[in-house]
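Schema walk-through. Below, the input block comes first and the output block second. Nothing else is stored per chain. Lengths vary across the set, and this one has 640 residues.
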Amino acid sequence: MSTVSSTNNSSSTTNKTYSYSSSGLSGLISGMDTETMVKKLLAGTQTKIDRQKQQQQVLKWKQTMYQTAISDINNLKSKYFDSTYDSTLTTNLSSYKFFNTKTSSVTSGSAVTVNSTDYSANVGSATFNVKQLASATTLTGSNTMSASQSITGTTIDFTALQSALSSADLTFNMSLDGVSKEITLSKKDFATADFETGGSIGATEFNTVIQQKTKNAFGTYVTANVNTTTGEGGTSSSTLTFAVNIKKSTVDDNGVVTAGTEAETGHELVITGASASKLGVTPGTSSLFSTSSTIGSLSGISGTDFSFKINGNSFSFKSTDTVASVINAVNASTSNVRLAYSSATDKFTLQSSQTGAQYGIDLTQTQGQNLLDTLFGSGYSSSITKGTDLIVSINGNQTSRSSNTFTIDGLTVTANSLSNGTDTVVGTTRDTSSVVSAIKSFVSDYNALISSLYGTITEDTTYKDYAPLTDAQKAEMSDSAITAWEKNAKIGLLRNDDSISTFLQSMDEAFYTQVKSAGLAAYSIGIETVSTDLSGKLKLDESALTSALSTDPDAVAKLFTDSTSGISTLVSKAIDSAAKLSAANPGSLVQIAGASGWSTNAKNNDIYNELQTISDKLDDLQDKYDDEKNRYWSKFNKME
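--- output ---
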């Protein structure tokens, strides 16, 4: 037993206004130790303060212990028991659906894949024969937006170019489909006379150099060409054009490749680097069409105002609006379509948001007659491809759906391809392993909770020998010694607690009750209490549980979910009786201590009320302490 006294040591009060600065002559004339004498005279009142503070600390410790128990109890419920209709809990022992969990997979064929299986799915096999896939109504533009897939700069200032090269090399980057190469021009690439004897770089000479540099970087996949024109008065000007030079090839069934002559779309050429401006090319310029382009900048566009309708919704734009703003407006509308530009095809596509034959596209230009023609090509209305429905035979019965993903008899599947005469077979079985796994997990968590609570109400009353420390006692101890002391001071505080004992008894009874609708009790399916353990912990016979689920899954489901006497029902009632968070009808432990992090009854529980009473007593005792201290000092000062 510790040798530290629990209540007799006096302590200087330190919280609230529990302090006093002594004043006076303090024995200056008489030689008396006034400070010590005053403390001794105040010892009786200080002891009363210490005792109230000790009671206060014990209550706070108890409150924390109760609140931890409440949290642990409710965590068990939230993990395994949710009786609400729309519960999404995946280990819900209160749900009849959970005990009828099914699993499905494709056993042969590949035209269909399984997305999910509802508890209502039929055990056995289902055959699917896909005869037509669902598709969306689509308008694909016939115009390519990037024209020749080239980059043409402004007029080259050869004098400025030559001056720049005289002092330093010029380097820029050329990127084709993400592959970047660095191209460097230096004065040694040109005739010596250009820089030493008054000569000058001309268009022809520069054309030869830039063509070779480009070829060295990208072979003939990219071409470079200087175009020179002669204006009025015989003045000539030159511009530089970089162009993608990739033709579309064809591959026959034997893998033989034949080179074509038609330009292949979907490639991007980008020029970067500050030195590109010396060549008349703005750094960052791309060969691909950009949706940041304004409507007025598009080839073939004329006018300033444009309006059109899609499925009854009207849209209006100015020539200064960007193409991106058109895309965003259409896609944000209720027209049930999606407008998109693809760099791979270099074309625009307008598609109904859902698949199905009865989702269409009604598109009409009402002002500025050439905007839709520019985006989709002339005669675009005749290029609309009507959507189709999914046509599928299920177990020999043909049906149709607007979507390739659909649900039938509890199975949600997606049709991916035509069956071409070969059925896809989907097999469905009961998923007993998930149920066993969930119950096994529950038993483990249940045992941890029960063991902890049982330990709390049966542990030795060590606290009786370790009353809470006073401030004076703490001042004479190390931090580690204080921690060790307070650990012992908490042991046994909730021994034989009635509310926790009642809760444990109710939980225990839930597993002994015979459920009439199921004709079973917990022990019938392999769940029993451990006979050698007084805490009420459970043991699980997985083989017996698996057998019961295989033999009569409905009975096992009723054993847990019966609304009157099912295990889940009784366990949930026991939990709510002890730990329910309710302002009107709180659980017994919540009424005692409140719940951590729950403000509703933070000031409406038994321990809070007790703490308030102690706080009031401490205020009165402190007032008494201060009055006595003032009186004693006044007397001693007069004596001096």
